[in-house]
Amino acid sequence: MRLQHVRVLGPTGLSAPQTVDVNAEGAEDRDATGLVLSPGWMDLHAHLREPGFPQKETLLSGATSAAVGGFTHVLAMANTDPVTDRAERLQSLLTRSEAVPIRISFVGAVTIGLEGRQLTDAIALKAAGALALSDDGRHAIDRVMFGRALDAAAAAGLPVLVHAQAEQLGDSPDAEAVAVTDALDALRDISGARLHIQHVSTRTAVDLIRAAKAEGLPVTAEATPHHLALSSRDVWAMGPHGNVNPPLRSPDDRDALCEALVDGVIDAIATDHAPHEVAAKQAGAAGFHGFETAVGVVLGL
User: Fold this and answer.
1) Which of 82, 221, 274, 297 is a plausible cystine mate for 197, CB 3.0–4.6 Å?
2) Which domain covers residue 34, as residue numbers?
3) 129: which DSSP letter?
4) Domain check: are 76 and 29 in the same one?
5) Is 31 marked active-site?
6) Whole-angstrom Cα distance, residue 154 to residue 163?
């Protein structure tokens, strides 16, 4: 198969229109004028709902959706049922994921049951194939436990991905600022630890991360397509479908995220793909289906 007049996205940007041979046996040549051919994308933050919530998504349906959106590799969080907090559970997921059309990697939980009380075996999870540790989906780890988690993850050679939200402050901007501050303070004390802050949503958090990077701390951060493209002004028109955690913030916060993406304070865009069945969404469940819209949204910024 040949794609004719297609532009190719590479390390130096977009090429001029050209003809590209594609390994797709049996497919017809196609005029790709106006289209872009790119490598497959990787999503650092996805909530695939299997096991436990097949009415929301399965490994197969999630992987198919990701492929449609251009993703060939996704990193699945641990907030399933049961939680991915044991090596044997992670190994089972890896085995089952071999049958889907993309590569799925998995995060191991930081604490047993995501309950914030007892650390998982980070070394065993790493040996089973975990690429990182995170209690994303719940955020009840106190400062002392988080420091211990960073230490254990560092010993295993894994980064910790943190949902930065101080639970006692709800989902306010202050909740994110306090949680980011606490996480960075813990990072300063643990040699060899690596921290990744998920779905940054406020200007204050951006400023804290910028200062931490200037200090030389080993921290990275992500923003979602929806926090980059939408703001609190859009929520009312969306009704319950606009409910997401962290919530859509002010236009000023959104602008700060876009600026941080350009200047490198935000290292990556990640979908935080978190699908729900219609009834759950209408009842107020938080989360956006992100795989199939992410690239289009980002290219439209």
Assistant:
1) 221
2) 1-38
3) T
4) no
5) no
6) 18
Q: Model's pTM, two decimal places?
A: 0.94
**Tens-of-pLDDT digits for all 301 residues of the chain?**
899 999 998 888 889 999 999 887 778 899 999 998 999 999 999 999 999 999 999 999 999 999 999 999 999 999 999 999 999 999 999 999 999 999 999 999 999 999 999 999 999 999 999 999 999 877 667 888 999 999 999 999 999 999 988 877 888 999 999 999 999 999 999 999 999 999 999 999 999 999 999 999 999 999 999 999 999 999 989 999 999 999 999 999 999 999 999 999 999 999 999 999 999 999 999 999 999 999 999 988 8
- Based on the domain organization, do 16 and 100 belong to the same domain? no
Query: Is the peptide bond between 246 and the residue preceding it cis, with omega within 30 degrees of 0?
Result: yes
Same domain, residue pair 60 and 137:
yes
Nearest to 289 by CA among 265, 269, 301, 271: 271
Residues 274 and 290 sit within 8 Å (Cβ to Cβ) = yes
Number of domains in the chain: 2
